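Sequence in, structure out.
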Amino acid sequence: MVKVPKPDIKKKLQNLKGKIPALIKKFKDNYPEIKRRATGTEGIVYGAILFTLLFVVVIIVQSCTPRKGDILYAMCNEFLTLHIPFPTTLQKTEVEFYRRARRIYYTHIDAYGTFQMEMIECSFYQDPDKGVQLDRVFFNYIKDITETTRSPGKGRLYEVKKEFIDLFNISRSPAAIVNSDPDLIIPDRLDQGEKIPPYPDFK
């Protein structure tokens, strides 16, 4: 077997150390020319090309990364998931963001195996001790948890009974929802341009 000699790292470092002063001197001697190229037409062209490439990369990364909603969206989505018979069939198609409310349009398979297209609207308030709490929830169809008559001033929507709201607020705090790694991905239809409003101050 032929033995391969080990590289002399110490000697290589010493050689490199000896070249450093020469490299520094060469840089200082050529600095005026380097500066001229960087600030001249050639430097501007190269800078513009580099900026364009970086801009394209950023756009590609953003287009490939799905946008995500906030804690209010997570709370509304959590309430919805708890109150449909087959959560695995849930598909969100569109989301609307308001200052203190979130509205989710979705499809799912109901208890009878029927494909349904529905909507849920959640509004919120700030509790001084407990933080953000679910205030009111509406569906566009009558459900076991809703009133049987339409809510005044809400068009064709049916309001969820207060006891279900209170139970949710007790058992599902915002911190608990965040720790459960909720699905915050926004449907593609919204992701095409609609902006998410800033987190409400509830004042």
